[in-house]
Amino acid sequence: MSLSAARPVITVYGEKNEPSGTTCSLPAVYKAPIRPDIVSVIHHEIAKNHRQAYAVNQDSGHQTSAESWGTGRAVARIPRVRGGGTHRSGQGAYGNMCRGGHMFAPTKTWRRWHRKVNVAQKRYAMCSAIAATGVPALVMAKGHRIENIPEVPLVVSDKIQSYNKTKEAVILLRRLKAWSDIEQVYNTKRMRAGKGKMRNRRRVQKLGPLVIYANDQGLTRAFRNIPGVDTICVDNLNLLKLAPGGHVGRFCIWTESAFKKLDALYGTWRKASSEKKNWNLPQPKMAQTDLAKLLKSEEIRKVLRAPNKKIYKAVMKTNPLKNTRAMVQLNPYAVVQKKNAELLAAKRLREKAAVKAKKAGQKPAPQPNVKRAAALAKKGKAKKGKGKK
Amino acid sequence: MSSEIAWAVTRNNSAYLLKKRNCPKPFSVDPFNLTNKNSFRYNGFLHKKAVAVAPTADKKGVTLTLKKSSRSYRPGQRYNRSDLKKGARVVLTTIRNTLNKQRYRKDLSKAALRRASALIRAQKPLPPRKGAKPVKKAD
């Protein structure tokens, strides 16, 4: 995914999910770096901007003329309500610990509700969000059911901009195989957990596809009653819609003219944006992000040393004094020495036995290998006297 | 975008992520995941080439699905499905040969075989329990 990579060609699909014959090349925004951290932060900042103020009534807890009784009256020194004749008289007032007092740190309407976000940051986040909608893995990971759609990004011919009937819109979504995402929306319709139920936020559902158009000739009206579907004009792209929740990868359906406007809106690296002042696409930190490709590339391989494929097996240490092979590795003559020692010992034993046998008047045991030795000696003599042990 | 970037984005939040109590390593619900573990290697939705092994609709065998690496941006066209119903040994050999001989994600071949044999074993009727009355297969 290098910056100057050739941009693939996207087929525009007609209403019946057949390639309509036209194609466009992928706008460069789709190769912008995907930065979920930036998108998340900027999304949360921007989301603060349509908050409505809430605050506690500023008079709460102060609508009394309570005054402390001071010391000496065997009561706590909290201000107490004046007067008599009612339960309220003499009760503590004003403090956050008092019943009917103000709260701790009463909320104020002049809390800083909105956040100013730098334009460049907002645009960066938008580029990332748009780029992420072009990666099928990310769109699927967001939860959209796009297993059967023809292509990502999904671009449809401009005819849908003049749809007026919801029926036509539904047929289009079915034909594009995007309907399974809408079915998921139906399946996730449920009641909100928590107090939001009582605060006009009763129902909750998943978000479906976002239809992005250039020219609204009825499209919004056709799509607006389909649950989960949002529509937006390409000139007013909204991060809150493209990365809902701060998570990238919403399923987007573009009309052809909207798709073609993206290059002019966000620029290509070669050419700055014509619609936005002083804006060009953000530079990625890595031109090539595919790790497997990098590891196999010539440039990297050239600099590496050859791999050490030799396996060093751990050798168990053996004691030469106990293990003959280990001894022989160190001292090859040890074999001879040992053999000689053996023979010598055997010889001495035989001599002892012979003495004993003589004393007992018996024949001594025959020497071992005598026959063999004799036979070999004969052979040796035949072979011109090669001596034998 | 490369699968590494997709992994960096989705390793901690995705629709496929499944975290459960007392399980330190999260699971993945991705159908293209052979071990259901949430890891870079096994999450098939991230990669250009992925393998899925699932039971067939009629519970008779196993469907082996491979992703076609050439059509990675066309979700509708990018799967090669084959139903394997012959019998355990044939199924397993087919899977092994498809993956190894075509060099298609050889690192997944063991996992694919394990999953297939687990599925096939689950499809066999349970052996009758000794001593008790014949128990109906809990399907």
Automatic annotation (TrEMBL), chain B:
Biased region (Basic residues) positions are 130-139
Name a single GO cellular component. Answer: ribosome
The biological processes this protein is annotated with in GO are: translation
Tell me which domain of life the UniProt entry assigns to the organism this sequence originates from: Eukaryota
The Gene Ontology terms for molecular function here are: structural constituent of ribosome
Matches recorded under Gene3D superfamilies: 3.30.390.110
Stretches assigned to the Ribosomal eL28/Mak16 domain: 6-121
Q: Which InterPro entries match?
A: Ribosomal_eL28 (IPR002672), Ribosomal_eL28/Mak16 (IPR029004)
> Which residue stretches belong to region Disordered?
119-139
Pfam families, sorted: Ribosomal_L28e
Keywords, comma-separated and alphabetical: Ribonucleoprotein, Ribosomal protein
Which ranges form a coiled coil? none
Which family, according to UniProt?
Answer: Belongs to the eukaryotic ribosomal protein eL28 family.
Protein's name in the database: Large ribosomal subunit protein eL28
- What is the organism field in this record? Tigriopus californicus (Marine copepod)
